[in-house]
Write a structure and sequence with these properties.
This protein is an alpha+beta fold. It contains 15 helices and 17 strands. Strands 6, 7, 8, 14, 15 and 16 form a 6-stranded antiparallel sheet that branches. The protein has a 5-stranded antiparallel sheet with strand order 11-10-13-9-12. A 4-stranded antiparallel sheet has the order 1-2-3-4. A hairpin with a 2-residue loop joins β7 and β8. α5 packs antiparallel against α7 and α7 crosses α14. The two termini are 15 Å apart. 28% of the residues are buried. Its EC number is 3.4.24.85. This is Membrane-bound transcription factor site-2 protease.
Length: 493
């Protein structure tokens, strides 16, 4: 909660400072004229919690691309019309179903509309992905409108970017007179182009995500091990002897790790296994044992009490427990952990049968939640981890993509994968949101053009068509507002 309050304070401080500086420069005679001239030349505009940039430099580019292959562009944007109208029906159905199920107290399994709040349900480490993805999706959405406008001979006045509080976006300025002069079908091609381009971008990102193993095959290997991409600072596996970024992890004990799912399964299996020890000859145990000679046996201790026969005096030794064939009495020995764990693994005393040598299966003398794990990584000796397996799980970030050369970045597959997932999610959300027949959204203009196209021949009275339009818009607006309220309620509940 403290972190969220800090972010809010910094955000409000930034926008307040920016607005006050803007107002100060405009109010002073010495700076007002050059400052206003600077804003006019650069196309910048500052208002309350909003920063805008407007330019005409892209108009020629839009004109050239929009006039490329006119027949193909006409078919392309006509497909966008069919998709957008179908998406409008699907979006209304889904949002209506969500409201109905919420009222019945039987909500759907997955939220159709979920607000993204930085610091609330968006981790700080993911904010850069979110901001960049939202900006790209917004730009491609508006580029779709611009190209369709060129195709339908509607003038483009300019293009711009904006930052509203923490949400970036884009906009295209079209000639209102030209737009109203074209037919409803041509208007539909322009209004639906943004949603259509969002769908295309989402599909392209999904294709890249599916083909990612193939695309990265020349640079990365899959299915043999996992690579460390991050280690939490001051954790049990950090430091000079801990795990390093770029090292490969192949095993946890005798459990092979070929993927991240294997890593999770191995740690889960270690939590379920209570007794995993190592076979040591009794003579070797006596030779290596550094525990005090007056150490008491389990006869003087409670069964659940953890014995520290090393007295915490050594960082390289660990207290082990064992028993021999001749005596069922539990014994303790302070042994060098690395030397002991290099011996063959065992789960039962019978696993340590060696001809003519009396051996014992020694187990770490720890509580029921603690495990001694050997993590095989890189070319160095195995990492000995003593603690709860979940601590190990949350302390390390891994990737299935192992670089084939040292100069290849280990985080590149994660960046591409995360970016594609955000593109699919946000671009898909823009499709569902923008096609709703609601005020100030593309759905409002799509609905108006569609009603004019369908009902103008059969209903010549413009007032009746206008009434139908406003009823649909009113329903869509209320539907979206109710969904937003329910989504915010669920988020902060």
């Amino acid at each position: 909660m403290l972190i969220q309050t800090t972010w809010v304070a910094l955000l409000l401080g930034f926008w307040s400072s920016l607005y006050l500086i803007d107002a100060f420069l405009k109010s002073k005679k010495a700076s007002a004229r050059p400052y206003l001239s600077f804003l006019d030349k650069t196309g910048l505009c500052i208002s309350i919690c909003q920063f805008r940039w407007y330019t005409c430099i892209f108009n020629r580019i839009f004109l050239r691309i929009g006039q490329w292959r006119p027949r193909f562009m006409r078919i392309w944007f006509t497909l966008g019309v069919f998709f957008s109208l179908l998406a409008m029906l699907v979006s209304i159905f889904l949002l209506s179903l969500l409201v109905l199920n919420t009222i019945r107290q039987s909500p759907v399994e997955h939220q159709v509309l979920t607000p993204v709040m930085p610091g609330v349900n968006l981790p700080a480490s993911q904010i850069s992905y979110y901001m960049l993805t939202l900006l790209i999706c917004g730009i491609l959405h508006e580029v779709g409108h611009a190209l369709a406008a060129v195709r339908e001979q509607v003038r483009i006045n300019g293009f711009g970017l904006f930052l509203l509080l923490v949400y970036p976006g884009a906009f295209v300025d079209l000639s209102t007179e030209h737009l109203q002069a074209v037919s409803p079908l041509r208007q539909l091609r322009i209004y639906c182009a943004g949603v259509w381009h969002n769908l295309v971008v989402a599909v392209a990102a999904a294709v890249v995500l599916m083909l990612l193993p193939t695309l990265l095959f020349p640079f990365y290997t899959l299915g043999t091990s996992v690579v460390v991409t991050g280690v939490m600072q001051n954790s049990a596996v950090s430091g000079p002897r801990g795990l390093k970024v770029g090292e490969t992890v192949t095993r946890i004990g005798d459990c092979h790790v070929k993927s991240i799912s294997d890593w999770s399964n191995c740690l889960s299996a270690s939590m379920q296994e209570k007794w995993t020890g190592h076979c040591l000859p009794l003579d070797l145990i006596k030779e290596l044992d550094t525990s005090p000679s007056n150490l008491l046996t389990n006869k003087s201790h409670h069964p659940w009490e953890v014995i520290d026969c090393c007295n915490g005096t050594s960082a390289t030794h660990l207290c082990f427990t064992y028993h021999t064939k001749k005596s069922a009495e539990t014994k303790y020995a302070c042994l060098p952990a690395r030397h002991a764990t290099d011996r063959p693994m065992c789960r039962l005393q019978s696993d340590c049968y060696v001809p003519k040598v009396e051996a014992a299966c020694v187990y770490p003398a720890v509580d029921n939640e603690t495990r001694l794990l050997r993590v095989f990584h890189g070319q160095r000796p195995p990492l000995l981890f003593l603690g709860h397996p979940l601590d190990l799980y949350y302390s390390v970030s891994l990737s299935n993509y192992v670089p084939k050369a040292a100069f290849i970045p280990v985080n590149l597959p994660f960046v591409i994968e995360t970016f594609c997932k955000y593109i699919i999610s946000l671009s898909g959300a823009l499709v569902i949101l923008n096609v709703v027949p609601c005020y100030a959204l593309d759905g409002q203009y799509i609905c108006h053009a569609f009603i004019e196209l369908i009902f103008r021949p059969s209903i010549p009275d413009p007032e009746i068509r206008s009434l139908i339009y406003w009823l649909v818009i009113f329903f869509g607006t209320i539907l979206l507002i109710v969904n937003v309220i329910f989504a915010m309620w669920t988020l902060f509940l």
